[in-house]
Amino acid sequence: MTASADNQRPADVREAADPARPADAREAAGVREAGGAPRVLVVQHEDGTGPGLVGEQLAQCGLEQRIAHPWAGGELPGSLAGYAGLLVLGGAPNCEDEEAAPWLPAVRTLVREAVGSGVPLLGICLGGQIMASALGGSVVVRPQGPEVGAVRVRRLPAADGDPVFADVPDGAPAAQWHWDEISELPPGAVPLLTGDDCPHQAFRVGERAWGVQFHPEVLGDAVAEWAASDGPSVARAGADPVRAVDSVRESEPALREIWSRTARAWAAVVHEYA
User: Fold this and answer.
1) Mean pLDDT across 184-206
2) Rounded Cα–Cα distance for residues 203 and 46 (Å)
């Protein structure tokens, strides 16, 4: 779920390539069009849940985003051939609820391919949970209820020198809206950021795959939309959706600065790979 800003499509954002296109043709094309920008496959799980602020930064960094809409009946590519990066966005389904989201097995396949082949990967909220589950970790429904609003995250030692999270300051605000959480990281995963209420806020698997529990792509308008639809359930669970929206709006300057910088750092990894 994202705000209207997340639905704005930069000129270099396109629909995902037809998965029926022969794999050898995609491979022959490489990870960019002739003389063009490296391509990133973006997996969107719901209407309106676009790449938002992260997508804006990737476009400014010269990456072409091809958005797949499996929630609307669009097919996912069978492989990452022809792509220089994979961005898996957030959404309401549980990462293992294949009845609500029957495309999840295909996303897991792409995630495992990215990690196995070294294609840069970024999983956001549900995307990070899919990563954790697909790679041998675990995800649970939060027994204490949802984590919502702008929440401070804390650096862990491995963040020093990390290609994407090295410049995230300790205590940075992060926009949150999730009922599930990663309870156990995959084997070999490196924790990068933590929080007081949710321990696994950011992690890395291998050299080029990152997952986050929070939403670096959203600002206050997005969270206001979530509160409008999900707020009554959040309130019944004991959290304060109104305060959640206010806290994100108050933190917008820092959110924009910090997570734009992080998105650009991931874009640099994609360019290096391409």
Assistant:
1) 98
2) 24
